């Protein structure tokens, strides 16, 4: 397998130009003994330089210790480890625990917010939370009710709080936050309730709002410069969003920002994705519905957009575009490039130049994908960068109250929020995927603030004529758009992956297994069944000279919503309940952190 020709991977880039980034975050993420940010580093690589655990000895892993969170429902995200303290979060009610690693995990402090339980009713797809963040001696949490909290990392004292949204309008939160320089970047959830998406920067010391950039609407509110903000090498032009919506539909147009955020300190650019347009009935919102379904690159200081790329114009399938953007430096066509890799819900893997937004690769990373034939790569074509939709699977062309069958992937995508990882040793991206198709029937729906604004009935099932399961764990070459190997799984792989310098890649399964595979070949090296399904993200740290691997288990999320919420109607859970009905034969609800290590 071709190796990188230089060591200029994103994780190493982060140690340069510290003037551009938060020194405390850079210092902590540059130390592989710690896990100071949910994505491992600003580049979202989820790669660790720790190498005590190798492909030769990983089979000897044992459970070192466990911790019960005391909460059921889906456990996404991962713990953090900073300066000998582990920070563990839970789903709603979003408790946070600080555990002393030097004293048998003694609870140093706990934060237990008192939230109105009514917020649960306006949270889509389970009550998950993707974790806390660390910077400048503080732990930051974005609660389900959109309260942003800054806690003293040593004592748990509340330093400040701010309200980021209004649950009465359907605005909630499931995501983590990103500390960058002196700001905290915060998104919003609620695309299924007609929320208008935005990203907000708060002053890290005070909680004061510095800037807010909306996903849809007037240029000034989107922080878009019509002449300087670029789309595939051309200026975006005036009123690009408003012109792509009918009437004032953009005001309830979705484009929420509940995914992952990355940051390049050298370019001082923040990257994130925007979600689906509202409603799920495409007939009610003709046009491209910009800038939903879009990768955004923004100046971290001002929020001004430098470039944007819409992956799924006029989304007809709920292919939320919020998945993580992985920043790597790799060679394409003989030239080292600053790349951004995005494995989108729509089933295409994109590679762009993260400085300019130039589209370099757009290929299917699941062969079952059928809603589009290709993404046009000819820069001279008026279709450049656009997917070519297959009429048979177009819910818009088939029309309202018509059941479009056999669409692949399903609405939860070829990959949902579960983050991939990148190894600079192999040059490969390791991707947890869904191998699921659907039937999709849109219908007319009226908007009412705080009420569901979906307008479609779905059913989901494994991709036909395949291995019979609902997931794969794959190794992806983002420079070529090629699958190097693929491991079939019975259920979707809803866990975030971890790649390590020990040539081992870890991930979890919905049945509850932690698995370790060879980074080069995909060979299964180790597995252990935890108490509940794993939708958390695997992390690693070192303490007292020993490497540990940790993962939260607690089945839930969209794929596990039937178990998590006790739903039985196959069409409930936006179509997921029926598709994953068999999951209850393999696991049950739980909430536990399991930490692994090699024997002494």
TrEMBL record:
Under which main EC class is this enzyme filed?
oxidoreductase
Give the UniProt entry's GO cellular component terms. membrane; outer membrane-bounded periplasmic space
Cofactor(s), by name: pyrroloquinoline quinone; Ca(2+)
Question: Can you list the disulfide-bonded cysteine pairs?
Answer: 124-125
Residues reported in the UniProt entry to bind pyrroloquinoline quinone: 76, 130, 174, 256
Any idea which residues are catalytic in this one? 318 (proton acceptor)
Q: Where is the signal peptide?
A: 1-21
Q: Which keywords appear in this protein's UniProt record, sorted alphabetically?
A: Calcium, Disulfide bond, Metal-binding, Oxidoreductase, PQQ, Signal
Could you give the cofactor binding note from the entry?
Binds 1 PQQ group per subunit.
One annotated GO molecular function is:
oxidoreductase activity, acting on CH-OH group of donors
Pyrrolo-quinoline quinone repeat domain location is: 35-361, 491-549
Provide the E.C. number(s) assigned to this enzyme.
1.1.2.-
Q: What positions does the entry give for Ca(2+) binding?
A: 192, 276, 318
Reading the lineage from the top rank, the first entry is Bacteria
Matching Gene3D superfamilies, A to Z? Quinoprotein alcohol dehydrogenase-like superfamily (2.140.10.10)
PROSITE patterns found in the cross-reference section: BACTERIAL_PQQ_2
NCBIfam families documented for this protein: PQQ_enz_alc_DH
PANTHER family, alphabetically? QUINOPROTEIN ALCOHOL DEHYDROGENASE (CYTOCHROME C), QUINOPROTEIN GLUCOSE DEHYDROGENASE
Q: Which family does it belong to?
A: Belongs to the bacterial PQQ dehydrogenase family.
Query: What is the recorded name of this protein?
Result: PQQ-dependent dehydrogenase, methanol/ethanol family
Q: What is the lineage of its organism?
A: Bacteria, Pseudomonadati, Pseudomonadota, Alphaproteobacteria, Rhodobacterales
């Amino acid at each position: 397998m071709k190796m990188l020709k230089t060591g200029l991977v994103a994780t190493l880039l982060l140690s340069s130009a510290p003037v551009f980034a938060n020194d405390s975050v850079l210092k902590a993420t540059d130390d592989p003994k710690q896990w100071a940010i949910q994505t491992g580093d600003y580049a979202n690589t989820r790669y660790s330089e720790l190498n005590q655990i190798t492909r030769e000895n990983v089979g000897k892993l044992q459970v070192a210790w466990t911790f019960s969170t005391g909460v059921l429902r889906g456990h996404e995200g991962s713990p953090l480890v900073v300066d000998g303290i582990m920070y563990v979060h839970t789903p709603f009610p979003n408790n946070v625990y600080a555990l002393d690693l030097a004293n048998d995990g003694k609870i140093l402090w706990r934060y237990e917010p008192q939230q109105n339980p009514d917020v649960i009713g306006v949270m889509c797809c389970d009550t998950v939370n993707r974790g806390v963040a660390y910077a400048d001696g503080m732990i930051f949490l974005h609660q389900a009710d959109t309260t942003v909290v800054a806690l003293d990392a040593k004592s748990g004292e509340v330093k400040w709080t701010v309200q980021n949204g209004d649950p009465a309008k359907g605005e909630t939160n499931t995501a983590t936050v990103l500390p960058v320089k002196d700001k905290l970047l915060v998104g919003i959830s609620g695309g299924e309730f007609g929320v208008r998406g935005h990203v907000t920067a708060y002053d890290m010391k005070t909680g004061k709002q510095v800037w807010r950039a909306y996903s849809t609407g007037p240029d000034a509110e989107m922080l878009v410069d019509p002449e300087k903000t670029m789309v595939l090498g051309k200026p975006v032009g005036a009123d690009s969003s408003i012109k792509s919506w009918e009437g004032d539909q953009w005001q309830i147009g979705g484009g929420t920002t509940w995914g992952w955020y990355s940051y390049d300190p050298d370019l001082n650019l923040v990257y994130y994705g925007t979600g689906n347009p509202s409603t799920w009935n495409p007939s009610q919102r003709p046009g491209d519905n910009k800038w939903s379904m879009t990768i955004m690159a923004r100046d971290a200081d001002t929020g001004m957009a430098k470039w944007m790329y819409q992956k799924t114009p006029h989304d007809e399938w709920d292919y939320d575009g919020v998945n993580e953007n992985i920043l790597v430096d790799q060679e394409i066509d003989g030239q080292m490039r600053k790349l951004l890799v995005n494995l989108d819900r729509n089933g295409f893997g994109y590679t762009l130049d993260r400085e300019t937004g130039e589209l370099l690769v757009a290929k299917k990373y699941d062969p079952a994908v059928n809603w589009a034939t290709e993404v046009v790569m000819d820069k001279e074509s008026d279709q450049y960068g656009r997917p070519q939709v297959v009429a048979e699977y177009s819910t818009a062309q088939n029309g309202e109250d018509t059941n479009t069958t056999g669409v692949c992937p399903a609405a939860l995508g070829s990959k949902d929020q579960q983050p991939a990882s990148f190894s600079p040793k192999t040059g490969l991206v390791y991707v947890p995927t869904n191998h699921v198709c659907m039937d999709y029937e849109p219908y007319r729906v009226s908007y009412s603030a705080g009420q569901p604004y979906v307008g479609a009935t779905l059913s989901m099932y494994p991709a036909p004529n395949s291995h019979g399961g609902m997931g794969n764990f794959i190794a992806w070459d983002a420079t070529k758009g090629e699958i190097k190997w693929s491991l079939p799984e019975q259920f979707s792989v809803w866990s975030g992956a971890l790649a390590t310098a020990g040539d081992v890649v870890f991930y979890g399964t919905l049945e509850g297994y932690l698995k370790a595979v060879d980074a080069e070949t995909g060979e299964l090296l180790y597995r252990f069944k935890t108490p509940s399904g794993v939708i958390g993200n695997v992390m690693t740290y070192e303490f007292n000279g020993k490497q540990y691997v940790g993962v939260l288990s607690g089945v839930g999320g969209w794929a596990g919503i039937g178990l998590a919420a006790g739903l039985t109607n196959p069409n409930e859970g936006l179509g997921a309940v029926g598709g994953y009905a068999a999951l209850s034969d393999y696991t049950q609800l739980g909430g536990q952190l399991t930490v692994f290590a090699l024997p002494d």
